[in-house]
Structure formats: structure tokens, C-alpha cells
Amino acid sequence: MGEGLTNTPERGGHGKKEQFGHVPVLLKEAIDFLAVRRGGIYIDATVGLGGHSLEIAKRLGAPGRLIGFDKDPKALEIAEGIVGRSSSVVGQNKVQDWPTIEFRHGSFADLANDEGRTTYDGILADLGVSSLQFGDPARGFSFQAEGPLDMRMNPMSEPTAEQVVNQFDERELADLIYEFGEERRSRRIARAIVRSRPILTTAQLAAVISTAARPMNQAERRIHPATRTFQALRIFVNRELDDLRKLLEAAPQLLKPGGRLVIISFHSLEDRIVKDAMREGAKLGKYKLLTKKPVTPSDEEIASNPRARSAKLRAAERI
Ligand SMILES: C[S@@+](CC[C@H](N)C(=O)[O-])C[C@H]1O[C@@H](n2cnc3c(N)ncnc32)[C@H](O)[C@@H]1O
Description:
The chain is α/β, with parallel strands linked by helices and 319 residues long. It is built from 16 helices and 7 strands.
């Protein structure tokens, strides 16, 4: 176990992160693969509530720099209170040895347009939504709580899920649900959505989908019928796969030789993109693969944090 992992607030249970019910996934593994170098420059592409950022910061020390991205300004505000120099977690004795931290509101895809010459010792991306977002019904990510159909990580972006659900034509909706949700019943679901418009809340949409796509067998009964459609809408609304591709494309130019790229994904569409990009990079002599197979959470981690269930970590080193 790496330095400080047992004493962090997310594990200790007394910190702000616990208050938001967010436990960083594959924390030790991610930090180990990142191999944070004191005095280095690192990117946390998905700051969230700062769980991974905090561990990176601890290892960087005063000469180091951490640049963090998040589309969600609320997440950055909370993370600032956890990782920022004035955070109580940092502690009196560490303040003197804390890195420069810069949080940027926006997509990690913006790194692709980085014209500057900075190169980095490591990039970490822990993809998807945080518990802060998922657990807040007002954000509209979950079909288990009634809320507006929003689903935006960045409240300044467009479209909202409501716009997609109510304005796209049936064919576009079906294609989107199939492509980003890998939902076989996409046509039936799209037809039911169009017939039930206007649909304004998560619960209303979940009910429409449940009626249109009743589970036909034991395997289908294991997940809620709305799971894949909600995933598809979220991915589309937040352009998740496009952003991931842009980051992966830019990463070899952003990393110093020996720099590490660590990505944690949560569903097969993301993992496939990460796997292909790293393998392609290895073929072109840009990367040494550090994970032949993805690293997955232990049974113990899954038991204590069900959100970790589908996590897959892949890592590569820039040659
Ligand atoms: C799973 S959470 C990260 C949790 C974080 N590692 C922690 O320990 O607290 C993912 C975060 O990434 C953000 N995010 C997702 N895609 C993004 C993107 N393309 N650019 C910037 N932030 C993104 C989400 O808003 C969310 O806050």
C-alpha cells in the first residue's frame, strides 16, 4: 500500500469525500502505475472529488505541479477544499511541501489544443460520473430517483438529456441508444419514447422504457431495463467517447519519455477505445504497455464500493 493510503479521508470516513459518498476507485493501483515522481508535472484529467488528486499531490511535494480538469465546476469547488493548500487534510506539517495545484474547468479533450510546450510525467483519467453527480437527483443521471432529465456534467453545455429525448427523431434516438448503450431493443425503446413525449423527468423516462422493453429472460432481468438507455444518453450528452479519443490521440505528444498514462474506464465502449489506442501506440513504438490485461478491483473493493464493480484500469509508459 502506498504512502498515506490508509489515512486518507475517503477511507478514514471522516472527510468531505465521505460526506459525498464518493470513494476513489482502484486508488492504490492507479497511484502505483502512475509512479508519481517528486517534483514532476502531472495531470488529473478527471478531478471529481479529488481522491486521486490528493494522493498525487502528496507525492509531488513543493517542487511538483498538478493540473486538474473537470467539466463540473461543483466538483472542482469541492476538490479545492480537499486537495487545495488550505485544506485541513493537507495538515500543518505538509503545507510547506505541497505542490502547485491548478484546477481548470473544462474537458480534458482541451489538452489536445494545448499549444504550449509543457510535457507531463503522467496523466490519469478516471472516467465517467462521480457519486456527487450520480447521487444528486437534480442532475438527472439516475433512473432510481425522480429528477429533471439533465445529465450534463458541465451545466454550461448543451444539449440536455431532455432536449435529446424530446427533440430527436425516432431514428436518431434509436441509433444513439444502440451505439452508446449497446441496447438491442433500441428501436422499440425509441418508438415508445417518441409516443410518450413530452418526457420531462428521469422517473417518467424509466417508466416508459420499462414498459417498452420488458426483460425477456433471466440475463435481462439482472439489470434495470433503463440502464443502457440512460448510459447512452449520458455518453451522448457529455460527448464522452469523442473526448476520450481526443485525449488518447494527444497523450503521446503530451507525455515525456518515461511518462505514464493511466486510464480507468467503466464500460466496454470506453475500455475498447483505451485498449485499441494503447495497443496501437505500442505497435508504433510510442508506448510500452504496463498492463497486458486490464487491472480490475478486488472482491474486497467491490464489496465496500459497488461503483468499482465494472472498473478496468489500463496503463502505458511513453517510450
Ligand atoms: C469518476 S469521477 C472522478 C473521481 C476522482 N478520481 C476522485 O477520486 O474523486 C469522474 C469525473 O470526471 C469528470 N469528467 C468526465 N469526463 C470529463 C471530461 N471529458 N473532461 C473533464 N472532466 C470530465 C466528471 O465530471 C467527474 O467529476
